[in-house]
Write a structure and sequence with these properties.
With 262 residues, the protein is an alpha/beta fold. The protein has eight helices and seven strands. It has helices at residues 26-36, 64-67, 130-146, 169-177, 181-194, 202-205, 211-222, 243-252, and strands spanning 7-11, 40-46, 80-86, 107-111, 154-157, 197-201, 226-230. It has a seven-stranded parallel beta sheet with strand order 1-2-3-4-5-6-7. It is globular, with a radius of gyration of 17 Å. The relative contact order is 0.16.
């Protein structure tokens, strides 16, 4: 059976500092799920726990106490609304969630590609170095796969997003081109074995026809990974339409057997 668009596991509320939309509440997100005919959605606000050193000034206010304001989520018949988070990795390889918090979340998203965060992820002198950014793409993915996170409920977010190199989309493509097929195969073979989910992010899927973008996800599929959909919506005007996801599902040849569940 063809991969069905029945879920969205990457959604932010206004509790995420970068939302700036007071209307982006769990009630409104649940309404979005009803309108789109989704049966599973997950709230994944940005988060760095106060017990973990290394938070940037931007992350510090987004601790567990802050995002847990929406821990009790509204529900509706036929829709499961899960409580998750989107944490991060700093430039020392520290992940912003302690083991004591793993059970507090239904789903844990970890982006390896937040390379726009100068104070958190990348040294100032390396900002314009595409080769270094490609090395970071690989090493940060390795750090995640070597962690003790409960991989059965971990998602690897937006692997081909333009945050990889915010200079331009073309700069992102150049950075991705510098990642070898061998590294992709090694990483995705391991992620498949560990059982984490690979995100098909709405913004990333806008570029799925481009070979360097598609290469990443095709390799993941060949290596046996499972995929989930994420709108990454931060505001009420960012809820996705389905054609970009439908195109990705078609190009990658995804079926229900390729779907990630937690």
């Amino acid at each position: 059976m063809k991969f069905r668009i029945d879920h969205d596991y990457h959604i932010h509320s206004w509790l995420s500092t970068c939302s700036h939309d007071p209307e982006q509440t769990p009630v409104r997100i649940l309404q979005y799920a009803k309108e789109q005919g989704l049966s599973k959605i997950c709230l994944t606000d940005h988060y760095w726990d106060s017990a973990v050193e290394g938070a940037s000034k931007w992350y510090e206010p987004q601790n567990f106490e802050h995002i847990a304001k929406y821990r009790e989520l509204p529900q509706a018949e036929g829709i499961h609304f899960y409580f998750g988070c989107e944490t991060d990795i700093d430039k020392n390889g520290v992940i912003g969630i302690p083991a004591s918090r793993y059970d507090d979340f239904d789903f844990i998203i970890v982006p390896t590609t937040h390379l726009h965060m100068k104070s958190l992820a990348i040294p100032e002198e390396k900002l314009n170095d595409a080769e270094y950014r490609a090395q970071l793409w690989v090493s940060r993915f390795d750090i995640l796969l070597e962690s003790d996170l409960p991989m059965h409920k971990v998602g690897v977010a937006h692997l081909t997003c333009d945050l990889i190199n915010i200079e331009s989309h073309e700069a992102t493509l150049k950075t991705l081109s510098l990642i070898s097929d061998a590294d992709l195969e090694r990483l995705f073979t391991r992620s498949a074995k560990l059982g984490c989910g690979i995100e098909l992010n709405y913004c990333d899927m806008k570029y799925i026809d481009e070979s360097e973008i598609r290469r990443v996800y095709q390799t993941a599929k060949v290596c046996g990974n499972r995929f989930y959909l994420g709108s990454d919506a931060h505001r009420t005007n960012e809820y996705p339409s389905k054609p970009y996801f439908e195109r990705a599902i078609e190009l990658l040849g995804l079926t229900e057997n390729d779907k990630f569940f937690f």
